[in-house]
Amino acid sequence: MNNQIENLNIEEKEKELKYYDKCISATKTLVDVAKDRKQQHEKRKTELEDEIKAENVDPEKIDEEIVNIFEDLDKVMSEVKDLIPFDLLKELGKLPSRE
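Predicted structure:
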């Protein structure tokens, strides 16, 4: 008998093939989970875009809109700050500490 054939171990090859089959199965499961998550994220993205559009904001310009909102907030906060009598509160010992 050929020496090469004698060195072949069919059982080991079968074990290795079964292991590969398990790995392929696990990979398929991961792919299925990833596809499901992608679908969930795409659905949520669409929902968020619809919510943004309902506020009359273009989803493509959301960053610009956020900056505008913060600028408006800064203006209002500045106006509020100007109305607070910090000196009087401090003089009367009623100025809250910043935390």
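Summary: Residues 9-56 form one domain.
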